[in-house]
Structure formats: structure tokens, C-alpha cells
Design goal:
The complex is a heterodimer of chains A (about 475) and B (about 140). Chain A is of the alpha+beta class and about 475 residues long. Chain A has a single domain, classed as tRNA-splicing ligase RtcB (Alpha-Beta Complex), CATH 3.90.1860.10. Chain A has 17 helices and 19 strands. Chain A is globular. Chain B is about 25% helix and about 45% strand. Classes of the chains: A alpha+beta (about 475), B alpha+beta (about 140).
């Protein structure tokens, strides 16, 4: 059993479990956390899962966890790991079932106060217009031909169909289209699941939220992001729906025999992997990129729906109701990037599972608009608390493969949350805070109660103290829409 | 007769399942999964579902079985299955049927049954397994 004593404190918010903790570890495991968050991470199986990641072939530097780490399956949630291209592996379990689950942030010039009298109507319209929950079709059911185009073009498909503005794509990670996507690498069954679902939020912890920009911490960067104090913002949190789940499930199954064939071992079957340069590895990467493109298009279609709903409810009543895109980030993904490891700059494949890319100012992969500021890092908090907009730093490139946290991180099981709270109680508590809720499932609301999560402010404080991101703005929720 | 219990897992769902034999274990695991989904709203009965699967080992077979049922259930309208009958199982091959109906919704969404810490053990007194579901 791992304890706090097994860790070495490197910095105020950086802890290391040395590679000799377990002879099977190839690299150390590091955690970005303050003392309290380290203790929280030790409360479940998350650190054990991080140790398993440190055992994978071809891993370089260290297996990393963000302060929102918690127990997942295979990789912990909040995990980051990089593998060298030669002799390294790609692991579908290191990306997860919801490929390119991510967050999109829109912002408007209108004052949140001007929105207040229309908030109920807006929340009702968003709930009615933007499909959420289970068993509902998305806004854009697709033919197989159109689906193949979505898989290969991502958000550009949405642009071609009048569902996006050019600027949206410029302000999306990888321009909303991952290279190397191949529709023919996506299993038929995944296509069958994905075809009716484009333009839907799904269930679980996915949501749509209307926020007020409560406070700016860096007015200049916030200004570049189009955020102003007292202004309105909208977050969309969802991923690749059943299509991504099926891609992951099918490849995890398909790759099960590979360790024997290629002569490597894994500590957990969910961490199954393929050598990057193997036919199986290349196929997974092509299918994963296609699923990621589906997710980019999905959030784009939902963003279009949000804009139309704002127009429907607010046009003629509120001035400047239009919404522009701040950014769209993936937090479940594997990408080839250049990093410096042990003094050597090399191409590696970075797996982020519940972690956000956080590139610094000047990074060549950033769009022109953010080249001088660094990349916006979107950190949604638990329902009814707060969310953060951060910005990437050079230190993130040194410490965390250019990554930061992705949310608050669960601390209580859904089962326990449902036992402790009723959905109606949660709704009433949010109402007392002035937050409007539209949710399809009261049970789902109880599962996602703020008490089931770590304090997002504490998580953000840890990444800021570790130097891997800087604060730009804090958002407070006005309305939450969930399936 | 098989039984199951839910165990603590911070973000997802973990179940322990017991069965008198492998067939009972697989049927009980399927019952457990649909209990976790909590389908609601009665709908139209469906023709019997037939499933035939082959896998390289018993753990893969269990994951395939559960994910196959999830796939068949996640259509529009949503479905729920019950009365699982395992007609043949030998650790690598399974033939089964189930009864089903359309439902209005599920209260919980399961993305997939995973291989994480998965084990299936059979002894003289019966079989047991632990399965983690991604929620």
C-alpha cells in the first residue's frame, strides 16, 4: 500500500514516487498536488493506477498526475504519460472510452446582469433545443457518407455546413481536425452508434453551463481571450458519444493478444497497448483521431445550437447577445508532440486522460490569436461552484509535458453521493445560490452534487503553485443544463 | 442462484458477482449491469435477443457479453434486457438468449464494461468475478 512517506517532495506542489518503489516501474511517478490533495489521491486506487502507467514500455520522463487525480480504470483520471515513438506504445485505455471528451468556452459582450431577467427562459430553451440525456437523437443525424466526412474533417465539416464560423476553428485545439484520421479505421459498430448522435451532450458529468465572468486575474490575457468582468460565458462539456466508446472498446479487445506477439508485458489488461509503429497501433491512432474529430464536430454543432438559442431568447431584448469562441480543448486524447526529456528534444506521443494541454506563449502549435498569451486552459468545476480559465506556461513544458488539470476531480463515489443527497435537495441548494438548473434526471443531479468533488479552487491553486498554469479568470454558474 | 454487490469506486462502477457455475455467473453479471443502468418506463416487449460470441479467454468473453448487451440496448428507443439464459458456455464461446423491452430511459449511463482488474475464478463451490464499468 502506497503511503505519503513513500513520496519525495520535489517542490511545494510536486511529489515524486521514485522508480525503485516497484522494480517493474520504468520511470518515477509524479503528482502535482499540495499536501491535502496528495492525501486525497491516496484515498483510492488512483496512485496504484499511476504506478501501473509507469511500468508501460517506452514511457519517458515520468508518469504524471494532475491534482484532480482520482481512480479510473487502467490509467487514473488526471493522468499524463509520454512514450517515445521508437519502441513506444499507444494505449487506448490511456485515452479512455470518451475519446476527446473536452470543453468549449464561448463568451459574449453582454452583461450577465442584463441576462438575469431572461435566465429561466434561456435555460428552458437551451434544455429543449440542445439534446441531452440518453436515448435522444442528436441535432444532426448523419448518413454513413456524411459521418465519414465528419470523421475525417472534424469541425471543418461543420464549417462547410454553415454550423461554424472560421474563427471558431482557429480557436479550437488542433483547429478542430486531427491529422491522420481515417474513417475506414473506425469499426462499423462505432459508426452505427455515432450516426444518430451528432449534436448531443449525452449524460453523466456532461453539461452545458451559462456563467458570469466573476473575476479577472490577468486583465490583459483575459482581454485577448475576449473575457471581461461581469460578462457572460457558456461552457459545453461533452465528447465523442457512443462512437468514441465503441472505438475504444473494440480496440481494447482487438489488441489483447499483442503483448505476447510483440514481446512486452502490461500490469493491467485495460492498459493494453500497441507499438506505435505497428499496423495495430497505426490503425488505433487513425480511429482515435477520427473519433476525436467527431467530438470536435459534436461540440461545434452544440455551440451553433447555443448561439441560435441565445438569438431566439434574447434578440430584441438584450444588446450584444452574440457569443464568440474563446477556445475548445480536448482532455482525453493522445497526440504526437515535441518535448524535451532528459535534455533531449524528441517527438513523443502524449496521452492525456482527464488532463488538459497547457502550451506556453510562443508555442508553434498555438493559433495566431494566442501565440503571445499562451493557450487557454479550461477547467470546469463541479456543478454550482466555479470554473476557471487559466493559461499555459513555459514551466508546464518542463514539468508536465505541457499539461494541466481538467476539472475538480471526484472524491466521492456516485453511489455514496446518491445515498447522501437527493437530486431535489441539490436543485434547491443551487436555487438558493441563484443557479437555475434544468436536468433530465434528479438521480444524475445527486451524483454530480458539488460535495462529490474536490474544491476546484484548491486544485487550481496547486497547478498555479506548481507553475504549470496561471490564473486568468474565475467563472461562476448562472444556469446548468444536464441530461 | 447467482448474486452480486456493488463496491466502492470513486468515479465509475465496480461490481462483484457470484454464480453457481460459469453460466450462472454470466447471467448474473448481465442482471447486475441492467440493475446499475436502472431502466425506467415500461415499453413494448421485444422479440427474444439471441447472442453468440467467441473470445480468446473467459475474461474477454465476459467483457464481450456485457458490451454486446449494452450495444443492443443503446438504440432509439432505449432497451432493457432480462431473463438471461446461457445455453452454452465453455470459457471461449457463448450462446445465450434474453428477453427485452423498450424503455423510456436509464437513470445511469454505462459507457462500457472494462478489463480493469478483471478476473473470473471458478472453483468447486462456484464462480466469481469483479467487473469495472466506465460511467
Amino acid at each position: 500500500m502506497v503511503t505519503k512517506r513513500d513520496f519525495r517532495r520535489i517542490d511545494a506542489c510536486l511529489w515524486e514516487l521514485p522508480a525503485d518503489y516497484d522494480p517493474r516501474m520504468r520511470v518515477p511517478a509524479r503528482l502535482i498536488a499540495d499536501e491535502r490533495l496528495l492525501e486525497a489521491a491516496l484515498a483510492d486506487e488512483a496512485i496504484r493506477q499511476l504506478i501501473n502507467v509507469a511500468m508501460l514500455p517506452g514511457i519517458v520522463g515520468q508518469a504524471l498526475a494532475m491534482p484532480d487525480i482520482h481512480q479510473g480504470y487502467g490509467f487514473p483520471i488526471g493522468g499524463v504519460a509520454a512514450f517515445r515513438l521508437e519502441g513506444g506504445i499507444v494505449s487506448p485505455g490511456g485515452v479512455g472510452y470518451d475519446i476527446n471528451c473536452g470543453v468549449r468556452l464561448l463568451a459574449g459582450a453582454m452583461d450577465a446582469e442584463a441576462l438575469r431577467p431572461h435566465l429561466d427562459e434561456l435555460a428552458t430553451a437551451l434544455y429543449a433545443n440542445c439534446p441531452s440525456g440518453l436515448g435522444k437523437k442528436g441535432l444532426h443525424p448523419l448518413s454513413y457518407r456524411a459521418l465519414n466526412a465528419v470523421l475525417e474533417e472534424g469541425a471543418e465539416w461543420a464549417l462547410r455546413h454553415g454550423l461554424a464560423e472560421r474563427d471558431d476553428l482557429l480557436r479550437t485545439e488542433s483547429g478542430g481536425r486531427l491529422p491522420g484520421a481515417r474513417a475506414d479505421a473506425v469499426p462499423d459498430r462505432a459508426k452505427e452508434r455515432g450516426r444518430p448522435q451528432l449534436g448531443s451532450l449525452g449524460a453523466g458529468n456532461h453539461f452545458l453551463e451559462v456563467d458570469v465572468v466573476e473575476r479577472l486575474f490577468d486583465a490583459e490575457v483575459a482581454g485577448r481571450f475576449g473575457l471581461r468582468e461581469g460578462g457572460v460565458a457558456v461552457q459545453i462539456h461533452c465528447g465523442s458519444r457512443g462512437l468514441g466508446h465503441e472505438v475504444c472498446a473494440q480496440f481494447i479487445r482487438r489488441l489483447q493478444g499483442l503483448p505476447q506477439r510483440y514481446g512486452f508485458s502490461i500490469p493491467d489488461r485495460e492498459l493494453i497497448a500497441a507499438p506505435i509503429e505497428s499496423p495495430e497501433g497505426r490503425d488505433y491512432l487513425a480511429a482515435m483521431a477520427a473519433a476525436a474529430n467527431y467530438a470536435f464536430a459534436n461540440r461545434q454543432v452544440l455551440a451553433h445550437c447555443v448561439r441560435r438559442t441565445f438569438e431566439q431568447v434574447l434578440a430584441g431584448k438584450v444588446r450584444r447577445w452574440e457569443l464568440h469562441q474563446v477556445y475548445d480543448v480536448a482532455h482525453n486524447i493522445a497526440k504526437v508532440e515535441r518535448h524535451t526529456v532528459g535534455g533531449r528534444t524528441m517527438e513523443v506521443i502524449v496521452h492525456r486522460k482527464g488532463a488538459t494541454r497547457a502550451f506556453p506563449p510562443g508555442h508553434p502549435d498555438l493559433p495566431e490569436a494566442y501565440r503571445a498569451t499562451g493557450q487557454p486552459v479550461l477547467v470546469p468545476g463541479s456543478m454550482g461552484t466555479a470554473s476557471w480559465v487559466l493559461v499555459g506556461t513555459p514551466r508546464a513544458m518542463e514539468v508536465s509535458f505541457g499539461s494541466s488539470c481538467h476539472g475538480a476531480g471526484r472524491t466521492m463515489s456516485r453511489r455514496k453521493a446518491k445515498r447522501r443527497m437527493r437530486g431535489e435537495q441539490v436543485r434547491q441548494a443551487l436555487k438558493r445560490e441563484g443557479i437555475v438548473v434544468r436536468a433530465g434526471s434528479m438521480r444524475g443531479l445527486a451524483e454530480e452534487a458539488p460535495a462529490a468533488y474536490k474544491a476546484v479552487d484548491e486544485v487550481v491553486e496547486a497547478v498555479v503553485r506548481a507553475g504549470i498554469a496561471r490564473k486568468v479568470a474565475r467563472l461562476r454558474p448562472l444556469a446548468v443544463i444536464k441530461g | 442462484m447467482g448474486h452480486w454487490e456493488e463496491r466502492e469506486h470513486t468515479a465509475d462502477a465496480l461490481i462483484a458477482v457470484w454464480g453457481a457455475d460459469l453460466a450462472d455467473l454470466f447471467a448474473t453479471a448481465a442482471e447486475a449491469m441492467f440493475a446499475l443502468l436502472e431502466p425506467w418506463g415500461g415499453g413494448e416487449p421485444l422479440p427474444p435477443l439471441r447472442v453468440a460470441l467467441e473470445a480468446s479467454d473467459v475474461e474477454s468473453l465476459l467483457v464481450d457479453w456485457l458490451n454486446e448487451l449494452l450495444f443492443r440496448a443503446e438504440t432509439v428507443p432505449l432497451r432493457s434486457f432480462h431473463a438471461f439464459r446461457i445455453h452454452h458456455i465453455d470459457g471461449r464461446r457463448l450462446e445465450a438468449t434474453a428477453r427485452g423491452r423498450t424503455v423510456e430511459g436509464w437513470r445511469t449511463y454505462i459507457k462500457a464494461a472494462t478489463f480493469h482488474n478483471l478476473h473470473v475464478r471458478c472453483r468447486a463451490e462456484g464462480c466469481e468475478a469483479e467487473v469495472t464499468f466506465d460511467l
